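ok trying again, last paste got cut off:
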Amino acid sequence: MMSDRDSRRWLWLIMGLYFALALVYSVAVPLAETPDESEHFRYLQHIVLTGQLPVMQPVYADNDTLEAHQPPGLYLLGAALTGWIAQDPADNLPPNSCFSFDPDDDGRQHAYLHRPEEWPPQRGVYQVFQFMRWLDVLFGLGTVWLAYQLGRQVVPGDRRVGLWAAALLAFNPQWIHITASLNNDVPTTFLGAAIITLCIRVAQRGRVGDTAVLGLLLGLGFLTKFALLAFWPLAVLSVIRYPLSVSREPITDYRLRITDYGLPLLYQLLLVTMLPLLVAGWWYWRNFRLYGDPLMWDVTLAAKGAIIARTTPFGLADLGELLAMHFQSYWLWFGWLTVKAPGWVYGLILVAVVTAVTGLIYLLWRRHLPVNWVALAICAVGVAAIYASLLQYAQTINWTGYQGRLAFAAAAPIAVLLALGLYSVNRRWLGTAVAAALFALAVLAVPLIILPAFPRPHIYQPPADLARTCMRFAGGLQVEAVETATVVKPGDWLPVTIYGYGLRDTPRRELADTAVPQTVAARLIGRDGQVVVQADAPLSWSQGEIVSTTLSLPVALALPARGVLEVGMVDETGQWQAATSATGRVLAIPLGVQTVKIAPARPFSAEPEVVTAVNFGDLLQLAGYDYDATSQIVTLYWQAIAPMTADFTTFVHVLDENDQIIAQADGQPQQGAYPTSIWDVGEMVADAKPITLPADSGSVRLAIGVYLLATGERLAVHTAEGLALSDNRFILPLRRE
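nice, full thing came through this time. structure:
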């Protein structure tokens, strides 16, 4: 029999190992790389910066945080502890547009782009984020201790069950992963374990003090996560169970006895029903007033429905998917449900779990162990309550509701039941062996699973102004971003830097240990789809390697245009390699990744036959026009007087004596090849407009204007003297000489 001193030493060792592992996980996994972690942080940040709780909006894009439906307990605590740290929301991590939710994806698994400031010593946003992770680690440490206490309650005569329960929980890699992140599942796990522990004490002793603490814990639980509402009926049953007519000494007969429903029992029922309402009722009343629903489910589903809502009825296939995904993600499925272990790992874990469940069934059948049946029943009912609520949740939610962490409210009693099942099969070493194997898995997961998915010393983050491409080529390279100049002139060199990431090693020939030639290519497309210049370079890589190469494209004589830079990879036969996006969409290769202004070789100047000085929206000035009677082309001469971001359409309407339009030409300058959005301030551009005049046309006038094609809205027109012209158009006679 293990002594009390020895059991305490083992418990301290288990807790110490968990604490060390959790700290390692909290650093090895980059910030925001666990499910919903970024949204939980925005919830806390909203409270700190505004002093108010976030309000859930029915439109997805209108929400400061998509976790605004969560009870505020963790975030209020976090705001109280970190509110003194200055932080700038601009430092929040931007999403990685190349991220894929596919767990079989070969690409890197970071959902966000990361910065060097994230790693110690952090400041501001990153310091708060890391502090909250470590706060959750402390909640996890307390939960390990509570799992031990629960095990001791279920089997009072042997401390090994408590130690095994603590170890099975502490060394669960997924549980470490979640408790080392910012997530309200972690305090939920702690409070769930504490509530179950108090339920057992209340059911066996019936002390008012224990019942009051239980009521307080329920209230705190209701302010932490809705899942803990499932324990409320269990708390009521625990109060009812205790026979009030017996002595307050600890009882030894654990058969269910309900002997008195007197007034003292009413007092205790009030403690577990009214005290939680006093602690947490304000939050649910707020929700009712704001949304007409204490659980704010309708507004949450409206905001997140496109992501989480179930579109088909829940059937047997869904149940099978739920069981498989839930089991795997309960034990090891890192990141945003994208980083998995090899299949055989889950097979071994399944063997251990099935062994434990078999042991539990054998125990219930033979009753061959000295078990506290009341404590065991409360643990089992607590687990059943959580899974019943989870199954109901899955009726409305798609696969996002299958996650193992959603059952972590009952993680401690689950660990106790597994430990008891192993104890039933073998009292000496089986639980220790399973816990040791889990510990080894949790340790090895860091170098073998986590670090390869989130490579260091840093995760590549392209500058914000680079074009993100996310092209995944058949040869095993992901081109994440392309950097190039935005303007080039004929006679200049256009540098193009391509940043990539090895999804797998460069392909090699089957019969020879040589790499298959891989070539990255870039070309500049100019006016009328003509290739202005093309360049390529050989490239090789290894899996996980960040690679880059710079191509220099010599730009020959070309007409001014808004060019397009296209990028792709060429195989050994000279064909473009197939490529997909991060989400599996087939891409047209080569892919246009960025527009490049092909500027005139020298500044254009003009001396129009008819000189004007008319202002269009303080953006453009019409310097004048020419008319070629032979070709019937009116050439307008525009000059940019301010930066423009829109592509404006210009028009020439030919008006007869009755102001009726008898000919017209609308279009972007130079048939759209040189649109206004790429003009430099001060640049002059010729805009030729073909018009066909009737043979019998007499004296006609030109009406000239500028508008946005999407809306038809014209730019305001003013003369050089500032006179506003009607209909936002400039009218002048057509000079035919």
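cool. Confidence is low (pLDDT under 50) at residues 243-251, 253-261. Residues 124-154 form the longest helix (31 residues).
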